[in-house]
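Technical appendix A lists one of the benchmark inputs used to test multi-chain prediction within the project. The record comprises two sequence entries:
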Amino acid sequence: MNKMDTSFPTVINGPLHADRRHDSAHKHVAGSADYIDDMPEPSGMLHAAIGMTDRAHAIITSMDLSAVESAPGVVAVLTAKDFPVNDVSSAHKHDEPVLTDKLVEFHGQPAFVVIAETRAAARQAARRARIEYEDLPAILSVAEAKAAGGKFVTEPLTLKRGDADTALAQAPKRIKGQMEVGGQEHFYLEGHISIAIPGEDDEMTIWASTQHPSEIQHMVAHVLEVPSNAVTVFVRRMGGGFGGKETQGNQFAAIAAVAARKLKRAIKIRLDRDEDMTATGKRHDFVIDYDLGFDEDGRIHGVKAEFAARCGFSADLSGPVTDRALFHVDNAYFYPHVEVKSLPLKTNTVSNTAFRGFGGPQGCVGAERFMEEIAYALGKDPLDVRMANFYGEPGSDRVLTPYHQTVEDNIMPRLVAELAEKTDYRKRREEIIAFNKSSRVIRKGIALTPVKFGISFTMTAFNQAGALVHVYQDGSIHLNHGGTEMGQGLYTKVAQVIADCFQVDLDRVKITATTTGKVPNTSATAASSGTDLNGMAAYDAARQIKERLVAFAADKWKVPEADVEFLPNRVRVGTDIIPFPDFINQAYFARIQLSAAGFYKTPEIHWNRATGQGRPFYYFSYGASVSEVSVDTLTGEYIVNRADVLHDVGHSLNPAIDKGQVEGGFIQGMGWLTTEELWWDGKGRLRTHAPSTYKIPLASDKPEIFNVELAEWSVNKLPTIGRSKAVGEPPLVLPISVVEAISMAVASVADYRQCPRIDTPTTPERVLMAIERLKTA
Amino acid sequence: MQQIRFVLNDETVVIDSISPTTTLLDWLRETKRLTGTKEGCGEGDCGACTVLVGKVVDDRLVYRSVNACIRFVPSLSATHVVTIEHMAGPDGVLTPIQQALADLHGSQCGFCTPGIVMSLYALLMEKPTPSRAEIEIALQGNLCRCTGYESIFRAVEAAAAGMASATPDRLTLTRERIIATLNDLKPKRTIRIFHGQSRSIIPFNTADLADAYATEPNAVIVAGATDVGLWVTKQMRQLSPVIFINHLTELQTIDETADKVRLGAVVTYTQAQNVLAKNFPALGKLLIRIGGQQVRNMGTIGGNVANGSPIGDTPPALIALDATVTLRSRNGARSLAVEDYFIEYGKQAREDGEFVEALEIPKLADDEFYAIYKISKRRDEDISALCGAFKLKLDAAGNVASIRIAFGGMAGTPKRAAHTEAFLTGKPWNEATVSAARAELAKDYTPLSDWRASADYRMLAAQNLLTRLLIETSGEKASLERYAMLEAGE
């Protein structure tokens, strides 16, 4: 016992709201962080490779796999027949087979699996298949799907408030237009991988690079026809996810599991990059048709819009993705009268899926195009049009979203005013207009765009999480929760929550691999919700243990509970100061339960899809950016000279990690909107299926000057963990300012009289063609 | 002794039998269980597999970053392969760049991080206080999907600031010992390695290469493997026999005389950078937009010509300069214009047993204006949508005395614009002429549409490049220059 030990710190190492590096940072830089392919392999493990079809839409008339079977090293070849439950459709629509043996619905759809002694042998053998097809007409694009009558993969949604038709008819000004917003490949650096290890009875252990271990568990149980309790899924870390590992790993885990059961050997399947890019889904591309009514001040009177998405061959997550696009068609703006609908179109392409923002960014791109159209129509600075349309103060008549949720915490006007001021936006815009007058070839542009992003899964049931916390006799703490670590720093932030709660140094908290065996029935780590949900669940677990400890101490030392205080690395009980490990040890001998399962569900949210009304989001996150670019009007090439960001994460749990999310989200979003072009040929073959042809941003694409700040004054008005806000997805929307800055440079060739209407991604080709269009108009 | 011998980290490796196409990455991960080096793409674009390969060059030990995913093990004879596991000291102390990346949030998911460490370590070894432009160039071959790179820049700058006071790291301390070991490991004669039905040939010198190739004209010659590597990792081709030539010192020579620059066939982009940037500034700027640093450290300009790609980044530039290629066989050598080497798509003027020995590039006269304009979807580490190279000479009256124009990406081979050249020659070099020449360009080329660009864009941009050339010959800048290009081009 230690009454006056000055060696105790006044604050723990790793408290809440402080910069702390990623828990695996040292292992990352030392090369000792193990991803699934790095783990020691079970003895006798075999390797699987997929055999892919090469038609976009066809019937398989024959499949000769004899040369595959006889290839060196091959142990087995599996086809659809080996999968009694040949179904991995996450939307439970039975529209996604593990393997197809008849109907081919996209180019690259897997038709068989080779199991061999080595991965190379399996891949080589897979090339020897001879598959004959009877071709069917393939529908590849939104336009083709619409022309063919527009078959949906899932139910469309309409959001409606007021009377858009009348508002449009009566508005002083009106514009109709169309925009194409391209898709995006996730390009997580670690591709899909699963290892299945068969156990006794019907047990199966899976290691998978997945954001959704529970769904992998359910899918594997489903295809093996065993109960969920027979399957245990683990993931310690992913080499990136970005939504691409929410449902897309199901198929590969199912393949590994079925092969493992059949051969009674451990099976690993790791896709090659090209296979991964060809056979797994991407961000949805959209064609947006819009009809805007507005007045001379630039204020919107009415909006009608149709968001048509290329969903690919199956539903997957296209329903909630296209819903979320509509939830963000307002972005930061109040539409007095609005009617928007989604068209989740079926196409003969790979099934599109979740990707950071989940349709929201596409909705926001539409909203910002609306503002841009109005600005060019009126000859105004687009920023003025934006500010004229922002949601109003609470209590005003401009606070209702198209889905009838009230915007209660609108900090956008303050945030944008601060950013414009700090970056000298107005003056720089004037300077750029002057520069463009005298520059023959190089033109510049600048734009400020905002983002308001709704936080919560729109499927209310998914907004729940669990955690498991053990405190061992030596005072060390074991933390587990349902969230997965894909680089976003979730494990670190949740560990900070626990360290803060017990007031112990962060290194006392051991972070352990996410597994369905410790926390069941988890939701995907998605929708930016990881910290909000799992942080609260972990806090709940720690709180329970702490309450028991307080009761124990009050009882043992005969003090009021209020006189038990957790100080940094020690506990004060009355006048006694006890080091944390000693305190825990005493609690153990007093038979105090030192383990707890925590749980959290987001309060207040509800959503009725049938009426299009509710409160799908617990709160909103805000941000804005200013970007400046230079465009070469002879070639359409461009450089991002500068970008400044001011972003709201509430009271940040870890500003360094949050800033990293904002910086990374900005650049990833910039890639989506600029150089990342998915290009299918006339036969439905994705020809940009590797980094040689699909160009994500490099270090040298980063804005030459790149300033990112968090809005330090922002605090979540609602009782989230530490009053923080979610950070994963919203920053992806920030770089719309890059697109609009490019657009301004283009518009300069026609004296800013026309909205250039550049589709995304704004490849040099699109930019140059827009310049030509404006010059000849 | 028919063995491949090299040093891996601190272990001397002796291999008696290995497939000619076993990649260094697979060998590291599967055979040596060194799993810190990652596979991200298997085609030399993402850099997750970056390792260092050290060689003794003129008694100096030079380490370069390379892509282990497309580097074949038999090409490593007498080198020092260094992986991420060898970066921290035996006591676990991180190198300054590792420490800074960890402390300043330079990793998120961490999968690209080992490769980024290796690239940046290589950079700091050569340039202890790099500029932002130099950091960008060093990272052109490393994709990070999480961080947005800004934190990585901050880490490099912090590491650079602390480099002077850092204790010498492992590679610095073992330099002398490694040089001695590598000198011992150097083969004394041609090595042949057998593995099942497949064979690797590592010729002792150019004469042995000529003999081996004459005997086996169907062998695949591999220098940098930045193209052939993908035949193996992506097309799953099984190649044999393979003749490795990147170690041949006779083919590594760079000779500069009063009127020309001669590059041996296996001179890498990196090795050629200085001499080419000095003599042909536009070519210097092009080179640092080819591949990433790792590819430039492996890939050779000779190979870029030899493989006959229709786009090939350097061929249009070389054709505009009227460069020649020397082909050698056991029977002797002959030279021909680079332009004549490309016959049609997939077909080159190379006879059985002939290999590219050298390139000769005539220097520019003082009154010759030379420009290369590469257009790609992404500025760096991207293959050209089109690339135009121009060598222009005006007479005293301002008329075109001579002009050579070559484009890549506009036809089945890198090709000269014969109609346009003829039209321009003798005419006044002004807007009216250039405007009229646009139609000539349309006679010269019928470009295709593909994922890099449409035919319409290619033609329009090519025509506009004539305008850019006109403006730039007057001294006015008419193309974008990121600060990287300004600082590092020459």
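Confidence is low (pLDDT under 50) at residues 486-490 of chain B. The CA atoms of residues 208 and 399 of chain B lie 51 Å apart. Comparable benchmark entries are summarised in Table A2.
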